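Could you help me review a protein record that somebody else here produced? What it holds is a sequence and that sequence's fold in token form. I have pasted the whole thing underneath without changing anything:
=====
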Amino acid sequence: MRKFLLLLMACVSVGLSTRSQQIVFRGHVYNDNNQNGTRDSDEPYRANFKIRLSNGMFTATDNFGSYYIKINHTGNYSLSCDAPAYFNAVPAAYQYQCTGDTVITNDFAFIPYANVKGLGISVTPLVSAARKGFPMPYDITYENTGSTDMAPEVLFTYDNTKLLFDSCSNAAAMLNGNSLLINDDGLKPGERRSFTAYFHVNINTGLGENVTAGAVAVEGSISASDEVTNQIKGSFDPNDKSATPSLSPQELTDGKYIYYIIRFQNKGNDTAFDVRVLDTLNNNLDYTTLQVLASSHPCITTVKDDNTVAFEFMHINLPDSATNELKSHGYISFRVRPYPTIQQNTSIPNQAAIYFDFNPAVMTNVAVTEYTTMIVVPMKLISFDANLQQENKALVNWTTSNENNLKEYVIELSTDAVNFKQAHITMPAGNVYNVYSEKIDVPKTPLLYIRLRITDKDGTFSFSPVVTLKNNQAANPISFLQNTADHTIRIMVNNPTLINSTAVILNAQGAVTKKFILSGNNNIDTRSFSSGWYVLKTQQLTRSFLIVN
């Protein structure tokens, strides 16, 4: 085995000593499986491993095994890398004496010291909420975490009564009932692969129902599994943060992590070239335990000793949602442990700021984890609907269960499905099962949008699906007729304000299939469309439809 020597590097000073220095440490982390002291073409780079600087900062390698840390103070530093089980990091550390501006490039190699088998797998939903009739894609990433070659069988399972399969990015995937099967041809130690499974949510699913999907990787007696659950919802903010909802004293004693996913979407009208996510961890969280689990794109992670974390997606080139709805999404998932001294019945809130290029920050919701001796049962919205009683009155009805931590319900109205205003506040009854009916004043308008804002006592809130009410005395904005035999769709515009506006048709993967300007009557030839589900989007209407060619 080639010997690695600790390097003592002097960095040449550039410029005046009174200004901040620009000192960059960078390089790659890879598996040296044959222990020849260099990376060969079949030896993988390693993602999501910590690189620690002796001043307390650390980073994580990105999807390509690359690391990057920038500091602005001269001095003596040690740089080390956390190795996986059954591997040594070589060298154990680099020693640097930095006196001025410099860029230092060095790699770390993982060398096995035992022959073991191991697998890892993760499932990440690419959207934060399951919406009826809309795409619901999942990323599945699996990895050889051992030190010998593996050829696993990867099985992704889902509820095919709620999720309807569209396609898979891995053409070798075999569909069988409610599962996708991939027989991998072999993974080198440290090698990871991923694929995306595309679905859309069955329009017959019920409000508040859960959609669960999971994956398992198996070879012989070695296996790894992961599972995720999403709730059927309506309108939602695509820039969100989710967290493990609760943690018990026993789980804290066992060293359990809190898991976080931050999702973002480019809802602008042009490509986002860089995206930065800034997260200040709650003081109850031990920043030194943070581990990056997965990301949608290569990401530079920087963690400082003041509990601040920066996730930087440089040159991400994220398309806007109108150009490619599905590709406009991104995410970062990570985990972190709370301090063992945390007091019982403590709420651990956390929020992130998302920056698209040089635009102002988009704030996520506040994700809360409850550390409690009690089991926290989340409130469930069983049903929500509304009906016009007369021109200026509407009856809003909803049913709930488990109202343990609620502050209030707020009925909100909108005439454009974008700008909502408070119309009525209802206090929760607090029972196990509750039925509400509220008659409210509404404006006279052809279309009215109603939603429910559900606010917890800690200030966090969520929204019900949006209900659309059509005034019987006003014309529907659009009439939609589909003739499967003639391969045509006829779109008739009844609202004059929509004429000369833009409409788009999206396929199940979120890509724009057709973009056109609305006239009084629009006939769309669908013979060039592939069979599958599509979505028509206009300023006042979103409609799912099926093409069979």
